[in-house]
Amino acid sequence: MRHTISVLVENKFGVLSRISGLFSGRGYNIESLSVGETIDPQISTMTIVTTGDDWIIEQITKQLNKLVDVIKVIDMTELDHVEREMVLIKVAPRQEDKAEVLRLAEIFRGRIVDSSQKTYTIEITGDEKKIAAIVELLRPMGIKEFVRTGKIAIAREGVKKA
Amino acid sequence: MKISGAEIFIQSLKKEGVKHMFGYPGGVVLNIFDHLHDEKELQLILTRHEQGAVHAADGYARATGKPGVVLVTSGPGATNTVTGIATAYMDSIPMVVFTGQVPTMLIGNDAFQEADIVGITRPCTKYNFLVKNVEDLAQVIKEAFYIASTGRPGPVLIDLPKDVTTHKAEFVWPEHAKIRSYNPTYEGNKYMITQAAHMIAKAKKPVIIAGGGVILSGASKELKEFAEYTDVPVTMTLMGLGGFPGSHKLSLGMLGMHGTYYANKSIQDADLLVAVGMRFDDRVTGKIDAFAPHAKIIHIDIDPTSIRKNVRVDVPIVGDVKKVLSTMNKVMKDEVKEQWQEVRKAWLKQISAWKAERPLEYDRNADVIKPQFVVEKIHELTKGDAIIATEVGQNQMWAAQFYKYDRPRTLLSSGGLGTMGYGLPAAIGAQLAFPNKLVIDIAGDGSIQMNIQELATAVINKLPVKVAILNNRYLGMVRQWQELFYQERYAHTKLDETVPDFVKIAEAYSAVGLRATKRSEVEPVLKEAFSIKRPVMMDFVVDWREKVYPMVPAGAAIDEMLFREEEKKSEKKLKAVR
Ligand SMILES: Cc1ncc(C[n+]2csc(CCOP(=O)(O)OP(=O)(O)O)c2C)c(N)n1
Ligand SMILES: [Mg+2]
Question: pTM for this one?
């Protein structure tokens, strides 16, 4: 099963490679990873999306906790939480599809952040399903480039299951 | 007053109570070495190879319980430590390794003798540091010793750029190391401990498996009290030997691939395992699905990742083994002893029958020297009161089987990594810590050649270690696998003509060399060696055909053992297993 794990770490150099080394060294897989400072600049949050059965996920969270620089590990999958990811999609539609691309961007509350004679670059934020949906719809229009931030996640307040 | 990084280094080690370290000089650590020149309280032992320095520090740590300390130069000096660090890491040995580094402004420039040792050792250290400012040095050293020796111990590396050793700062020694993200759990959960006590009281066929954690946490006394009160037999992993007295009537000796028949049988028949400070390594469990099929498992370990990593666990107890066992001993007193007294008699009787059925054995009447005979003689003549280091291979397994370790910290052996070349430097480290103890490296002719240069270290420092080479002219353990599983195709395991004359080698290093080629010569050679207050290397020319038994083939269940007398028969069985 897929899990989204949020890891609070000391904001020091080398921490990212300790975490990624843990995954590669033990053969766990990372689907996405995003890192950024928290409000306290000494602490960063890493949001890691990984897959594995219960046994692997238990090992992953224990192994993460064991790292000296890790302050806290939260398996978001066990909590009510919000997940978001941002993607930038550069489409190069044929003349007759241009209007459709703009319409789709609007439906998905995307923003056109760049355009040229041949291309539009659309910014979309959402959860996994929404992003998958727009990608499917834009694919026939000719996607030229596609980048994504990786997921970030936050627990909903007041409904944490202990 | 401001002092240099090199002086801070020395002052900090003194504050940590360090008396000895092992090392090797080079360009970027010259400032430190220069300060060591006049140093009286802090002694550096110059080894003849950086790997030797790390193993020596490791042997020192295993024998004393205090962290070993190493100081080497950058680049090749640093990379030469890697095997030693990985060895210590696998066996959870506390150690602090200082490596020199090129000056901070050159880092990343592929400078002369630059190696990214922090990157290289990230997966084989508990933690590592690159010190960028001399102001941070004292704090980093404090934290390094704290991390190395608390929780599940392990090696910590500190990379010291040359300019950090010359730059000056105020020396402020932090009294406490507090790291918000590092908080090992020491106290076991009381509820779980009580649960465990109930299960132990009710169990019909319980077995304790004691691992290296018992020794690391100093829990031998608690373990003995626990086993005796509950009448539960104890088997040990290689790392656990000495954690419980090997000659105790409840001892089953070692379990696993070369474990005793009765230890492995007991595990497979048990209805409850109490695993204490061990991690269910594959050399211990054999085929994991077939391991202890009838047993519930109570697992006590300070490292939560060890629990449920390899086997299912019914009662996990995360905590320091010593603390958990002493709580357990208290809780156990609430359980009525009558509950188990009778049932235990039956279980111990069954075990005695297994012991009688297949004790550890070899041909005791042969005229050629049987390697097991040498180990037994060493045990007999030392009355078990020596510190034994081992190399890796058959020699190591015979040292584990035929010497009875009655006290903790008397066996120094590379278990997790299985590092050939470990024994001699480890023995040197232990001898430095215990100058009046008999320290013996039980060696193989292959392994000893991997760090044989350390004879010089022993000689020059007047460390009277004894090396007993079980010389079979083969990489014996590999040869054993080839004989049993590779149709006797001995690819690159025969050393024969190229095995050097170890007596001459000893003499070339100004040590003493002795040789025995017949059974009758073994005892006189050992006695002579033990009476000489200098390093002695003994060459026991042993029967090369000898194999380590019992043996559980890789991938088989631990009660699918091969025995000596079944060699021919077993070949068929083996083919089936493969
Ligand atoms: C550094 C290293 N290289 C290779 C091995 C694989 N290995 C395990 S035992 C062994 C043979 C050891 O030979 P020797 O020291 O003569 O011991 P014996 O088994 O003959 O007693 C080898 C090559 C190892 N454990 N360590
Ligand atoms: Mg050999």
Answer: 0.96
Ligand 1 centroid – CA B393 distance (Å)? 5
Tokens standing for A79?
């909590």
**Distance, CA of B273 to CA of A73 (rounded, Å):** 31
Which amino acid belongs to residue B180?
Answer: R
Residue type, B70: V
Which residue out of B447, B452, B483 has the highest number of ligand 1 atoms within 8 Å of its CB and is therefore the one to mutate?
Answer: B447
At B246 the pLDDT is 98
Confidence of residue B565 (pLDDT cuts 50, 70, 90): confident
pLDDT tens readout for residues B12-37: 999 999 999 999 999 999 999 999 99
B54-94: pLDDT as tens digits: 999 999 999 999 999 999 999 999 999 999 999 999 999 99
Q: How far is it, in rounded angstroms, from Cα A109 to Cα A106? A: 5
Locate tokens 């958990």: which residue? Answer: B324
Residue B578: pLDDT band with limits 50, 70, 90: very low
Q: Bridge-partner residues for B471, per DSSP?
A: B541
**DSSP letters for B371-428:** HHHHHHHHHHHHTT-SEEEE-SSHHHHHHHHHS---STT-EE---SS--TT-HHHHHH
Residue B371 has pLDDT above 70, yes or no: yes
C-alpha of residue B197 to centroid of ligand 1, in Å? 42
Whether residue B397 contacts residue B65, with contact meaning beta carbons closer than 8 Å, is answered with no
Using one digit for the tens of pLDDT, what is the confidence trace for B549-558? 999 999 999 9
First to last CA, chain A: 22
**DSSP bridge partners of A152:** A84
Task: Please report where in the chains the tokens 């020199």 appear, as a residue.
Answer: B100
User: Mean pLDDT across the stretch A132-154?
Assistant: 96
Scan for tokens 């000089």, then name that residue.
Answer: B25
Contact B410, B240 (CB under 8 A): no
Residue A140: asked if its preceding bond is cis (omega within 30°), the reply is no
The answer to whether B9 is a known catalytic residue is: no
The arithmetic mean of pLDDT across residues A120-131, rounded, is 96
Is the four-CA dihedral B529, B533, B534, B535 of positive or negative sign? positive
Give chain A's count of helices (H) and strands (E).
4, 9
B312 interfacial to chain A (CB closer than 8 Å): no
Task: Point out which residues pair with B44 in neighbouring strands.
Answer: B21
Best of B149, B305, B309 to substitute, by most chain A Cβ atoms within 10 angstroms, is B305
Q: Are B377 and B526 in contact (CB under 8 A)?
A: yes
Question: Mean of the pLDDT values across residues B149-166?
Answer: 98
Mean pLDDT score of chain B: 96
Q: How far, in Å, CA of B552 to CA of B533, rounded?
A: 41
- ipTM computed for the complex: 0.90
- Spatial distance between the Cα atoms of B211 and B199, rounded to a whole number of angstroms: 21
Distances (CA, A) of B109 to A117, B103, B106, B114, B167: 45, 10, 5, 8, 21
From A36's Cα to the closest Cα of chain B, the distance in A is 18
Residue B468, class by beta-carbon neighbours within 10 Å (0-12 exposed, 13-18 middle, 19+ buried)? buried
Residue A162 — very low, low, confident or very high, per pLDDT cuts 50/70/90? low
**pLDDT confidence bin for A14, thresholds 50/70/90:** very high
What value, to the nearest 5°, has the Cα angle with vertex A158 and ends A153 and A162? Answer: 85
DSSP for B9-50, please give it.
HHHHHHHTT--EEEE---GGGHHHHHHHTT-SSSEEEE-SSH
Q: Which residue has the tokens 């319409």?
A: A103
CA geometry: angle B510, B500, B381, nearest 5 deg? 65
Point out which residues pair with A110 in neighbouring strands: none
- B225 contact partners, CB below 8 Å, separation of at least 6: B325, B329
The neighbour count for residue B484, using CB atoms within 10 Å, is 17
Among B62, B50, B55, residue whose Cα is nearest residue B23: B50
